[in-house]
Structures are given as structure tokens and as C-alpha cells.
Write a structure and sequence with these properties.
The chain has about 190 residues and is an alpha+beta fold. The protein has five helices and eleven strands.
């Protein structure tokens, strides 16, 4: 089975790049993906939670937080409205029927996300799409059958049920958006 496929090119990510440069404090506001997990593959990165389970539900614990839910836009989305046109374009492109989580990740030069497989209801219910926002040569999104050296404005479908990882061997932060979409192709 193929683990990734380029599905688009030419998405206008420049407005989002500028919004993120102007508001670096948005990264790392929510750290539950790393807190209390010494073995988390995501320790070397920071992120912006744009959309996921309602933040109030985090108090119920991570297992409950990651169980079946309707995703909502987080307050951070109001500061980066440039996300929505990209997300809505992807929804239309892939025949999206339900929008799940939207996450923007930042990995510093030399940083990695260790090989891992995404688990849980959300990871298994939605298909995942990767949009490079800032990705210089040397920053790769790896899979068993190859790597993506994405360029800003491209979009890729990827299968998160197999090992995948990220290595940023570039001189700048690697910034990407992950969009989770349920499509009509799913049963």
C-alpha cells in the first residue's frame, strides 16, 4: 500500500506564513500532546491547535479527549483566519464530508518527530492531509516507502496507520499544517 500521494500544488500559503511570523506566540500554547509523555514522538516540536475536541473536554483526561467527538475551532483560529481558505479548498478537493482536527506544527532545525503510528478514534476515523507551510530542502516527512520533501503550497494525502516521522535537517523551522477530513470514500 502506498503511504502518501501528492494531491495539489499552488495553494496560497503566503498569507498564513506571514500571519505565523507575526504571531510566534501562538505556537506551544497547548502542550497536552507532550505533557506527561516522556516517550512522546512529538517532544522536539511545538504546535498550534486550530481545531479539535472542545478544550474543556481535556479535563476528562487524554483517553476521553481523544475519543469520538465533534471537532470545534479553537480561539487560536481567530488569530489566523488564513487557515480556513486552505482547509475549505482541501475539503472541496477531496470531497470532504466532515472536518476533524487542524494542527500546525513547528520543528526547529535539527529537530525530529520520532517514527510512530497514529492511534485512536480520531486518527482512524479521518484521512490526513499534509500542507507544507515552510519547508526548506533537508526537511523531510518520511514513510517506509519514501519521503516527502514538500514545498510550500503543495498538499499530500498520507496514511497515518503506518510508521511515519519527520526530520528537519534544514537551517530554518519546518512548519506544516495537518488537516483531518472524513471523505465520502470512507465506509
Amino acid at each position: 500500500m502506498q503511504n502518501f500521494l501528492k494531491i495539489a500544488d499552488g495553494l496560497n500559503v503566503l498569507p498564513l506564513q506571514l500571519a505565523l511570523v507575526r504571531q510566534p506566540e501562538l505556537f506551544g500554547r497547548r502542550s497536552a500532546r507532550k505533557d506527561g509523555y516522556a516517550d512522546s514522538p512529538h517532544l522536539a516540536m511545538s504546535d498550534i491547535w486550530v481545531r479539535y475536541n472542545h478544550p474543556d473536554n481535556l479535563a476528562k483526561g487524554m483517553e476521553a479527549f481523544n475519543s469520538e467527538h465533534d471537532s470545534v475551532w479553537y480561539p487560536e483560529a481567530a488569530y489566523i483566519p488564513e487557515v480556513r481558505p486552505i482547509v475549505m479548498h482541501l475539503m472541496a478537493l477531496v470531497g470532504g464530508e466532515r472536518l476533524g482536527g487542524v494542527l500546525i506544527t513547528k520543528i526547529p532545525p535539527g529537530g525530529t518527530i520520532a517514527p510512530h503510528v497514529d492511534r485512536g478514534w480520531h486518527a482512524e476515523y479521518y484521512e490526513k492531509f499534509y500542507v507544507p507551510i515552510q519547508n526548506d530542502p533537508g526537511a523531510v516527512f518520511g514513510f517506509e516507502d519514501g519521503v516527502i520533501e514538500g514545498r510550500p503550497g503543495e498538499a499530500y494525502w498520507f496514511y497515518n496507520g503506518r510508521p511515519h516521522w519527520v526530520e528537519n535537517n534544514s537551517a530554518r523551522d519546518r512548519i506544516a499544517m495537518i488537516v483531518c477530513i472524513r471523505t465520502h470514500k470512507e465506509n
